Each structure stands twice: as structure tokens, then as C-alpha cells.
Amino acid sequence: MAEQNTAVTESVSLIDLAATVWRQKWLIIIITVLAAVLSVVYALRLPNRYTATSTILPISGSSSSLLSQYAGLAAMAGVSLPGANSSNPSVKIQAILDSRELAVKVINELDLIPQLVKKPEKLKDVSPLSAAVGIFQKGVFSVSIDAKTSLIKVSAKTRSAELSARIANTAIDLLQQDLSNRVLTSSGKNIVLLEQQVADQEKRVRDLQNKMMDYQKKSRLVAPTTQSQQGLGMYSSLIQQKMALEVQISSLESALSSDNPKITQAQAQLAAIQKQIDNYEKTGGGVGPSISETPKALMEYANLQAELELATKIYGGLLTSLENLRLQNATDQVFVEVIDTAVPPEQKSEPSRSMICVVGTLAGGFLSLLLAFAREALQKLRADPEVRAKFAKKR
User: Fold this and answer.
1) At 41, is the secondary structure helix, strand, or coil?
2) What digits encode the pLDDT tens for the residues 71-83?
3) Alpha-carbon span 360 to 38, nearest angstrom
4) Buried b (16+ CB within 10 A) or exposed e, 288-323
5) Are strands 50-60 and 141-145 parallel, antiparallel or unpaired?
6) 224-255 vs 261-283: helix axis angle to the nearest 10?
7) Between helices 25-45 and 2-23, what is the axis angle to 10°?
8) Residue 325 · residue 187 · CB < 8 Å
9) What is the pTM of this model?
């Protein structure tokens, strides 16, 4: 019995609803038709807008992909690696494309203020450029990234197909210039400065090398340690020979007459050795500085050699730093490869007039049904004696 009563109640409710719709059919028809007409008029008044899209692929010399793989593995293990997102070139490129600076450059490059801001004289608290930037970033320019392929789509939507393509392509050109300028202004300047330091230090090393060669020619020092040892050895040998001859002559003079040939020969040998000793003390024997100048020459040679070695070490350190900075610069550079350039689209992207008409008509139909049920309920309330008695004025 309960199920039968429920079925009867539902059938009665549906009949009542259908009866209400039938009684209010003209209201529903009029409102629905009016909404459809207004939707058509509104859709026809909307201007066509064309979307041009360019596709680019970020290219980086860094190990961001490897870092991303490690970051994914670490995330699976519950470990977070810092800097994984910051090393992704797509993040940097999207940030530059979405920046106000790039928007201002595109607007100034293509002179878009007259096209974006129709009535600049009505602006009160904002400049025409600021208003144009707001319109550009919100309704004209858009950037999207494919997380799987890292492809970046740069789109521009305006009333002109040619202008949309020009905006997208100009934005990519300015992006490439910006990336090059960022490399030049950061590590590029450091490289230029370090290259100048390397060139100056290389010149200093060469000057010291020339100075060393000139001093070697002047002092006849090529291998100071070896030459000094050999020179001292030769000088000591001459002194020893002189002393031995003097002893021999003294012995001969005590036993023989002064005109003896042996004494004469020994004296001649002594004179020759003395001459060699004098020559060696004055000229160094032709293989180095003199005995009196040798200490000073060795000291100057040691100072020049130490200065040259220090300059060479500094030059080697600067050269290593330059190579490391160049390598780091190569790994930090970010480029974009244009996969598809933006071309003027042949078909509009919006508005979808048919969809606007369908949605407007459906909205009008729902609104008319709500108004019909509300009107029917109001009529029932007005016909109820109790409700009328409550609203009646007390006498």
C-alpha cells in the first residue's frame, strides 16, 4: 500500500508540473525566444579574434635533465633535492615571457598602445602604457608549457590575424635577445674581465722571460749552479797548481842556481798560471761572471728566476680560472629553438557564436521555467483564504 501511495504521489506531482508548464507556456515561450534573440544579437556584435601560436623548445647546456631525474628518484624515496625546478630552463623562459619587461618591449616594438587602449583620455589613475600592459598580459598574450615534452607555446590573440602572428614572433625574438644579454651581463662580463687579466699577465711573463734572456747574455749565466761549481773548481785547481809550483820553485832555488833551466821553466809555468788566475778573477774565464761579481750575479739571477716563476704560476692560475668559467658559462647558457613560427591564422579562434546562442537559449529556458513556477506558486498563495486573511488589514 505504501509503494502504491508513493507511485500515485509521484505521478500526481509530474502531472502538476506539466500542468504548470502548460498554463505558463506563453511566459516560457516569450522569455526563451527573447533570450535566444538577445544571444544571437550579442554573438553577432562580438568581433572575431584570431590566435597565432609559435612553438619553441628550450635548450640548456646544464645538467638540468639529469638533475630532474635524480630529483624524481629522490622524491620517490621521500627525499627532496633543492634547486631542481630552478635549474629547469622552461621555468626561466616562462618567467621572462610572463614578465612586465617583455610586455613593455613588445608593446613599444609594435606600437600597440593605440590598438589596446581605445580611449586613453578617459584613463584617470593609470598611464596608457600601464593600461596597455594590463590588457596585453590578461587578454592578448599567453604562454603554456607541456610538462611531458617541455615544449612552450607562445600565443597571441587579437582582432587581426597578422598582428597576432607579429606579436608572437616578436616576443620570441625579444626573448632570444634577452637570454643573450643575460649571459653577457652576468658570466660574460666576468669572462671578459678575466681574459683581460690573463692577457696582462701573459705580457708580464713574456717581459720577464725577455729580461731573463738579456741578463743571461750579459752575465753569461745559463745554469748558474753548475757554472758556479765548475768555475770554483777551476779556480781552486789553478790556486792549487800555483801553490805547488811556488813550493817547487822554492825547493829548486835552495838547491840550484837561479839561472838553472828547471827554475826558469817552473817560473814560466807559475807566470802562466798566475795570468790565468788574474784573467779568471777579472772575466770569469769566459764562461761566467768574474769571481768578484759572481755573488751579486747569482743573487740577481735568483731574484729574476723567482719573479718569473711567480708570474708563471699566477698566469697558470688565471688561465685555469678562465677555462673553468668558460665551461661554467657554456653549461649555464639557455637557448630556445623555434620549432614552429607563428603564422596568421585563417580561421577565427573566438567567439563561438553557435555556442553562445545555445547557452543563451538554454539559460533563457531555465529562467522562464523558474519564473513560471514562481508565478504559479504566487497565484496559489494569493488564492489561499488563510494567506489572504493574514495579509488583510485589521479593522
Assistant:
1) helix
2) 444 454 444 444 4
3) 8
4) bbebebbeebbeebeebeeebeebbeebeebeeebe
5) unpaired
6) 160
7) 60
8) yes
9) 0.52
